[in-house]
Amino acid sequence: MTLCNTSETDQSSGVALIINGLALRAKPGMTLVEAAWQGGVRQVTGASCLEGVCGSCRVMLRRGKNVTVGLACQTFVEPDIEVVFMPPSSAPLHHYEIGELKDGWDVQARFHKIFPEASRCRHCHGCVSACPKGITVEDGVALATAGRYREAGEAFFECIMCELCDSACPEMIAPAHVGLFSRRVTAYFHLRPPNLIHRLEELRQERIARDSGE
Ligand code: SF4
Ligand code: SF4
Questions:
Q1: Which of 101, 142, 143, 174 lies 20 to 30 angstroms, CA to CA, from 45?
Q2: Are 117 and 174 within one domain?
């Protein structure tokens, strides 16, 4: 790969951009994370799937006056783009033990104790705009707040826990953690995914047919 700090290379070659305050030049077609590494931006984490799965390369992107967020491994270099790698979300931690839930009747009351801020959603769509996976985050939070955990869990099925939605939320709701809670309680109370139930039923039918010699 051909990327260097501009102080070390031909000023006219490649795509000029700024990453973490460093003026760099990158080969067209590089992702931002490749450009950062090749340009000497310090690595501070061992996580790096480079495929949009680990969610660790959270970046803030400025194009002129337009500021957005995304994943550096899924965003390509652009002329004059300014990129800042973001620290982990500062949304509050939510402590709970799934095993302490007595039964399904207990879940909604516990949810509102664990996530009291969830019912303060102001429907600003910030979480939806921030999500690099196209998840209907705001709807997922509303479903969980209404006690519809199975549907909320399904809404967050593709979530990679990048926590960009958490960083975007003005109410500090931590939508990613609401989604995780929803998926956990759904699994804990054995509300298994419909496709898994369907496949298990197919296998059961096949075994019955085999045992009866059909
Ligand atoms: S829901 Fe939140 S944590 Fe999950 S992928 Fe979207 S932005 Fe990232
Ligand atoms: S960012 Fe927070 S307040 Fe805004 S819609 Fe999403 S969950 Fe609601």
A1: 174
A2: yes
Structure-token pair, residue 67: 């500021």
pTM for this entry: 0.81
Mark which of 64, 85, 106 sits at the end of a domain: 85
From first to last of the 214 residues of the chain, give the pLDDT tens digit: 333 344 444 456 899 999 999 999 999 999 999 999 988 887 766 667 888 889 989 999 999 999 999 999 999 999 999 999 999 888 888 999 988 888 778 899 999 999 999 999 999 999 999 999 999 999 999 999 999 999 999 999 999 999 999 999 999 999 999 999 999 998 888 656 667 777 888 888 888 788 777 6
Q: Is 171 in the pocket of ligand 2 (CB under 6 A)?
A: yes
Strand partners, 25: 4, 16
How many distinct structural domains can be found in the chain? 2
CB of 118 sitting under 6 A from ligand 2: no
Domain span at 175: 98-188
Ligand 1 centre to CA of 162 (Å) is 5
Q: Answer yes or no: do 67 and 115 share one domain.
A: no
**Residue whose CA lies nearest to ligand 2 atom number 8:** 121
**Ligand 1 centroid, distance to 158 Cα (angstroms):** 8
Of 56, 118, 53, nearest to 92 (Cα)? Answer: 118
User: Which CATH number belongs to the domain containing residue 70 in this structure?
Assistant: 3.10.20.30
Residue 204, domain member (yes or no) = no
User: Could you tell me if 160 and 54 are in contact, meaning their C-beta atoms sit under 8 angstroms apart?
Assistant: yes
Contact 98/185 with Cβ under 8 angstroms? yes
Nearest-angstrom CA–CA distance, 90 and 170: 12
